[in-house]
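User: I'm putting together a small comparison set for a docking exercise, and I want a reference complex before I start. The sequence is below, and the ligand is nicotinamide-adenine-dinucleotide. Could you produce the 3D structure with the ligand included, as structure tokens?
Assistant: Of course. I'll restate your input first, then give the structure tokens for the complex.
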Amino acid sequence: MSWLDLTDRTVLLTGAAGGIGRAIAAAFDAQGARLALFDRDTTGLEATSALLADRHPAFTLDLAEGDGIAPAMEAASAAIGAPQILVNVAAMSVPRALAEVSEAEFARQIAVNTTAALLTGQAFLRLRDRDQPGAITNISSIAATHSVPNGAGYSASKAALTMLTRQLAVEWGPEGVRCNLLSPGLILTPLSQAFYADPADRAAREAVVPARRIGRPEDIADAVLYLSSPRASYVSGADIVVDGGFTQTLMTHIPRKRMG
Ligand SMILES: NC(=O)c1ccc[n+]([C@@H]2O[C@H](COP(=O)([O-])OP(=O)(O)OC[C@H]3O[C@@H](n4cnc5c(N)ncnc54)[C@H](O)[C@@H]3O)[C@@H](O)[C@H]2O)c1
């Protein structure tokens, strides 16, 4: 048995077609877990499935359509067994200044990035394997605590996800379900690759991260495995920031000579 003890554990994973979601799927697969993969991107889902030799069922699901969430999770539960772990990875971002973002664009980010995590969580709570502890990990962002220029409602939606997850930890903890946040920093994925197209931009981004590199989807997957595993059985309501130290660099932006 591996230290993580995830063999045969049942996992619902949203955003499985994306960069971080695919890496998380591969990491759980390598541990012998049984996954149900969700995304609205059918082609991307098929690519993730193919990468994992079609060992796990995949479900096309638009998380902006709240009514579709419970039936999709029921179908997944019938396919892999009652779920023990839920990981919410799917999210979207509208590249717009707050002065310009429309009500519909703002609302869609809240629906996908925040409300869907409540609805998948409710379905998980109802369907879950009550003989085993439950674990929910919601992928947030350092944008939940640091505003993103031209990120429209992305920061607000992730900040709301933070408080939602903390409250879930309080309300569902007594039922045996741990709920945690994982906040990635600068990670190179399809969502963010446009920011790295210019080598000078990439170098400038690497220079401000204490680890002196951009994060990989696998850096996030490793932390998700830990949070989902029995090794984290006393960790709930936490926010694990995986950013190479980037969010701790505020005081490096001001001149501060050594005194004495
Ligand atoms: N890449 C980064 O630098 C970074 C930084 C901080 C946080 N994050 C977070 O990590 C997570 C994964 O991001 P990523 O970089 O892999 O992005 P990505 O765009 O590669 O993946 C996101 C996935 O969510 C899916 N999705 C979007 N809207 C959906 C909807 N309505 N219904 C179902 N699926 C939907 C997309 O199809 C995509 O597969 C997100 O929650 C993101 O906010 C990413």
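Residues 15, 17-21, 39-41, 44, 61-64, 89-92, 112, 139, 141, 184, 186-187, 189-192 surround nicotinamide-adenine-dinucleotide (CB under 6 Å). The CA atoms of residues 7 and 30 lie 9 Å apart.
User: Thanks, that's exactly what I needed.
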